Amino acid sequence: SLLLLEHIPVYSHLFGYLDSFDELLELYLHSRLYLWLHSQFGLGPVDAYVMISCSAYLPWLLAFFYFVRPRDWPDRIGAAALLIPVPALQLYAGYVENYSLAGMYLALLLFPAMRWLTRKYRPEAISAGASSASAPLSDRAQLIYLAMIAAIGVLHHLMVSLVLPGLIYYTWIKSKRDLHAMLRMGRLPVGMALALLALTWFAFSYLVQPPIAASESHITQPPVRHPLSLFRPDHLLDMLLIIIMASPAALLMLPLLFGLRSRFIKELQYCAHPSARAVHQAGDLIQQLHSRLPDVLQRIIRRMAVHFAPDPLYRFLWLVLLGLLGMSFIVKSLIGFPADWDLLTFFQLPLNLLLFQVLSDLRRVPRHARETQTDSASQSEADISHSNEPADKTGIVQSSPATFVRRLWLPLLLIAFCANGAYTGAWLARNASENELSRTNRLQAERNVSDFLTHVQNDPLYAGLDDATRRRLYVKVSLFFVRTYRRLQTTELSEAQRANYLEQMRVGEIAFRKWIQKPIGPDFWREKDRLFNELGAINAAVNR
């Protein structure tokens, strides 16, 4: 955030906007809003971020209300408890970073998709009045909407592209699992999304000045971890903390979720109203794989097993979640954890939607069992002859509403709400408070910007640079020198250390000014890597 407080004003005043291929429209909007606010009202970059951050929450809430509107009140309360009071709410509370709009577009994508899937695969979750009051969009219109929202989201932050596996699967189930129908149905949405991406990237590459520097994108140099470091204890501990930060209720719910989706449940096919045959098959598998469990646990799992079997709604959420969670697992955080919490917890929305869906389904297990009683009575003996139990033994199907499963829903919801609310409240309160160090850092960032812009105006070297590539490099390195010189003045160091670092900085600055004037070619870029490594070592030593 402190770097953005320097880069947004500097690049906006010198180039018109701060460019980044990975966060193209997000940075462009922040830069242009800052220039307008600064020229009209004398406001700074923090004000631009605060306005966009808070404004992004309104579309998020509208998408949330669209998602819960057709559901009954227990589901609405459950969704509010699991999806709203989470630490990621900080993104919409005046947050100075480039993830608020990307998170908003992820919500605009997932909430409508979940509502449309719920209408098809959980019709019992849609109230009768809502079901008759509003007809869903056609399948093609749904795909066009999702494709365009995803494309706009990608233009704001490339992380949104990680929902692509989920969108492909969404198209697959909407085409009734027919490959040719899927290709026909997806041609128009995919074509429109690709056209939007291509036109925007073309405009910023050839029409907008200065053009974006795609070569500096993380696509060309992905910051991924070494495979051998993925399972180190410290990294696994960080991932556990990241999951807690994404959803404090997750650790309370994940054992239930994964317990119900173990391998014996995956063998079953989901149906909205499970038959007696499927229930007895679930009981047989449980007895084979968990014969040592107490009887009460076997009865509980047996009642829930069929309902939590894999189905399109869960698969869609899993694909979106695993894409974003996998990114958090393999990416090498550039500024470390927990500083990069906003990037690493981008999977929080699909995770919390998954937990909500588990609770929603859990609440309906007894009702399904009662409805199944009627269905099973009309089945033939052949339908239930596959069970080892007698055909007329339907004790599991004939469960009463006052079961342990039904009683489990409300305590779990209360625990989840308390865990989310307590953690999120403490997190927001901590980030909203300003201490002496934060005030000092903000003042230093403002002084760095002022000193650097004055330095640029008086430096004939910058005026003599005739292309955008050199000017960008000049700004990046010279701003580093201004920042580090000021840092050396305030950091507690011995006089010998301070003198040593100052000498290294002077030598590096002389080498930089010679290098920046050389012809651009292979030697230019090789020397750039060497120079940046040397300056990076100085930066690491000074900021230890």
Verbal overview:
- With 544 residues, the protein is mainly α.
- Among the domains are: 2-229, no CATH class; 436-542, no CATH class.
- The chain is 71% helix and 0% strand.
- The chain contains 25 helices and no strands.
- It has helices spanning 2-15, 24-41, 45-55, 57-68, 73-83, 100-121, 128-133, 139-156, 164-174, 179-207, 233-246, 250-260, 263-266, 276-289, 295-305, 312-330, 341-344, 348-377, 381-384, 404-432, 436-458, 460-464, 468-490, 495-515, 522-542.
In short:
This protein is mostly helical and 544 residues long.
What descriptors fit this protein?
globular; mainly alpha; about 70% helix; about 550 residues
Fold topology:
Elements: H1 2-15, H2 24-41, H3 45-55, H4 57-68, H5 73-83, H6 100-121, H7 128-133, H8 139-156, H9 164-174, H10 179-207, H11 233-246, H12 250-260, H13 263-266, H14 276-289, H15 295-305, H16 312-330, H17 341-344, H18 348-377, H19 381-384, H20 404-432, H21 436-458, H22 460-464, H23 468-490, H24 495-515, H25 522-542
